[in-house]
Amino acid sequence: MGSVMDFDVTPEQQKRIDALRTAVRFRLPGVARNSPDAHYSRDEWSAAAALGLTGLCLPATAGGGGLGALDVALCLEAFGDACTDTGLVFGVAAHLLACAVPIRDFACRSVLDELLPGLADGTLIGANAMTEPEAGSDVGALTTTATPVDGGYVLEGVKSFASNAPVADVFVTYAVTDPTAGFLGISAFAVPRGLPGLEVGGPMPKMGLWGCPASSVEFTGCRVPARYRLGEEGQGSMIFQHSMGWERACLFGLYLGVLARQLRQCVEHARTRRQFGRAIGGFQAVSHRIADMRVRLEAARLLVHRACWLLDAGRDHRAAAAVSKVAVAEAAIANGLDAVRVFGGAGYLAEGGVEAQLRDAVPAAIFSGTAEMQKEILTREMGL
Questions:
Q1: What is the CA radius of gyration of the chain?
Q2: C-alpha distances out from residue 347 to 150, 180, 343, Å
Q3: Which of 80, 74, 193 is nearest to 129 (CA)?
Q4: What is the 3-state secondary structure of 50-74?
């Protein structure tokens, strides 16, 4: 987008997302996840990677797509629309934005050469190990430590909820290197899975996003060579906020895709389902509910695009990303509830996938910083 207000995608962008949507429908239509411990396979991950999805914003020199934030969000929207396995879509987005982006921007040359091509082509799966049992949104409450030793650091601590972790090959994690320095005492690391002292737990049963496995990650005397530190010592908080800036701006594009698909399903159902002698779409109780779903979707889409545009323009996008994250999360949950009501009893059954859309929507208000934390960002910006 240029410097003037323009709500249209370019012909090049439209061609890219149309081609991607078609390819995803052909190669990754989604599978029924019939239990909380059923998650994506390496074959499914590789199929997504073959379409360029695991490296959208990574440099072309490393095999990535070299795309900016807005194009990433547009591609994730097409992915979320075309693939009914939202857990897989989320896993790819988390790999890209919370793991590959901080490596892309802060790793030393040798680690870039070692990890970035694999992250781009999907032969390596990334996980972000930040959250701890007593520290989620509060970065200053981390208890995992990284003690400097000759040639590197020794990591000690437990991370409680890392998406992709059970199958990940590299973990971006954050630990305290200077307990006296507060948020300036945290450092970031890219930790390969094979290092001794790194133990990954089994998949956690979850309410939704079943396709994406998540688990705890424990560091016990895990010696990490110094070259795997991201940025300088003490820059961990800044690096985490940088990666969250990309995640909050771009990842929620995938929910726009889910909402668009969901809206089409509701419209089709309202046209064809008949009660009391006519299509249920003829009743305002149904049609107005669907109209509300469209309003939430279109408003959320504009907010996501604005946040991404600001990020691409190098402008302050923190508040815009907070606004868009809250709007998308609330739209996803509200529309998920409305879709179940439009479908009635059929919406409550697992077979049609409508109830799964609602379950998959709920965590949108929690990950990448809770909705309440985003509102804190906004109130502070307003001087409250």
A1: 21
A2: 59, 53, 5
A3: 193
A4: HCCHHHCCCCHHHCCCCCCHHHHHH
Pairwise CA distance, residues 257 & 90, whole Å: 12
Q: Is the pTM of this model over 0.85?
A: yes
Burial of 141 (0-12, 13-18, 19+ CB in 10 A): exposed
Kindly state the DSSP code that residue 26 receives in the 8-state scheme: H
Whether residues 110 and 134 share a domain: the answer is no
**pLDDT of the chain, 384 residues: tens digit per residue:** 445 667 788 999 999 999 999 999 999 877 667 777 789 999 999 999 999 999 999 999 999 999 999 999 999 999 999 999 999 999 999 999 999 999 999 999 999 999 999 999 999 999 999 988 877 666 778 899 999 999 999 999 999 989 999 999 999 999 999 998 888 999 999 999 999 999 999 999 999 999 999 999 999 999 999 999 999 999 999 999 999 999 999 999 999 999 999 999 999 999 999 889 898 898 899 999 999 999 999 999 999 999 999 999 999 999 999 999 999 999 999 999 999 999 999 999 888 889 999 999 999 998 888 888 888 888 998 888
Structural domain including 155 reads: 127-234
Nearest-angstrom CA–CA distance, 343 and 289 = 12
Residue 4 falls inside a structural domain: no
* Token pair of 134 as six digits: 């007593």
C-alpha to C-alpha distance for 169 and 179, rounded to whole angstroms: 29
| 247 noted as active-site residue | yes
Collapsing DSSP to helix, strand or coil, 252 comes out as coil
For residue 155, give the nearest of 191, 120, 109 by alpha carbon. Answer: 191
Which of the listed residues 234, 268, 299 is the one where a domain comes to its end? 234
For residue 184 the two structure tokens come to: 């300036």
**Residue 156 backbone phi and psi in degrees, to 5:** -140, 125
Residue spans of beta strands (DSSP E) within the chain: 126-129, 145-149, 152-163, 170-176, 186-192, 198-200, 214-225, 229-230, 274-275, 278-279
How many domains, the chain? 3
| In-domain check, residue 3 | no
Out of 103, 125, 147, a domain closes at 125
CATH number of the domain where residue 160 is located: 2.40.110.10
In the set 44, 247, 330, 376, the catalytic residue is 247
For residues 91 and 156, state if they share a domain: no
